[in-house]
Amino acid sequence: MKTKQAFNPYLPSYEYIPDAEPHIVDGRIYIYGSHDLFNGLNFCLGDYVCWSAPVDDLGNWKYEGCIYKREQDPAAPRIRLTNGLAAPDMVQGPDGRFYLYYFMGGTKMISVAVCDKPAGHYEFYGYVHYKDNTPIGKKGEPFQFDPAIFMDDDGKLYLYTGFALQGNPILLDGSKPTEHGPMCFELDPSDMLTVKKGPGYIGVAGEKESKGTPYEGHAFLEASSMRKFNGTYYFIYSSLNSHELCYAVSDYPTGGFQYGGILVSNGDIGLPGVNDVNHAKNSTGNTHGSLIEINGKYYIFYHRHSNRKQSSRQACAEEIQFKNGKFYQAEMTSCGLNRSPLNGIGHYPSYIACNVYGKKGTRFLSMLKHPKAGHPYLTQKGGDRESGEDQYVAHMCDGAVAGYKYFDLSETKEICINICGNASGTVYIRNRENEKPVAEIPVKASGKRKGFSTKLAGLGKKEALFFCYEGKGFFDFHSFDLK
Q: Is 71 helix (H, G, I), strand (E, B) or coil?
């Protein structure tokens, strides 16, 4: 069976799904995440949607539709802008039904919806609660956030939640962040809602407790997720650095977790030569995701940022190396789930860039758009929508770089870039950063999209392509063709 090439982001470019939790059901991988709006004023303003793909064809994603609407929750606050549907997680219960655990801003509670199918229309089910029916979060506990739900092999059910900030401030709803890292509740699998034990802390350090330990510099912030491989428990979380997913390891699901390392950074920070947000390979922001094994290979799911702000996030994934129980930080790539370099012959949209930065470097994004000056960035035309891909790399100005990894260029003879703008200069093509160009393309101003070509030959089976512009003005980079 011929499969489609997979790219990053792996969903269509008009889709903004951050916080994705991957789960496999009957040979398909399903993605459960938040739903940003393009150019949204805040995070998670859309209703939950679901996408899925066959495990043997990870480039063939299917839109499963809207699976749950915010107003289905009886406690939904009237104002959506500051009270969106945050990162969910899903588990199949002993009754065969599928349970979606989520947090909605303004409620303090962890809500649950249920469905007979992994991507059907979920119905509100209830709130996770103590035996006296008081919802967790209503007894003065630390802030409940980003629920992770995990069913162990022995049938025990665990819920992980938590949120931490430096200095432990009071939050807008009056809650306090956790000082001791993520919390764990054991739930009764007979109803999937009632707390049997907890909350307890699992040993993943918060800021204060991290000092002098391997967690220092990578203390827990948010984005709990639990996985089990070869009998060992792996707790995935976003650190206080926010741009990175880290993990901790234990022989038990409820405690004893030891720091394992970085899984991925949405700026490649932590890889050789990349030490801080100013020198990251992309403008950075928060991230959330998890690990999964597919056909003997391991993948880390995370998200990237676009449109010069934090609230237009897109789903990405990378193969990650796993040896002797340890994961090694994955590099951001354009080929992500493809399992091999992309074909050296074909048409490629520019938005699959895994590295986008300017002469001024990069920055950690806020909820307000950062200035264009000196910075290329990913964006699309028009507003939020559910069809019509046209995302591209905008504002390729002097010193701007758009990088792509990796391609099999052993048979490639020519490359054409499709651009428009008032640029006048040269695009230098490198197969390694900061090294001598392997080709160059003079470009001129054009009010309409226009192709500029050059010969390209003598490269290998796994090569990067860095398009580096030097000149006056700027252009919008829409796509390129390898011939």
A: helix
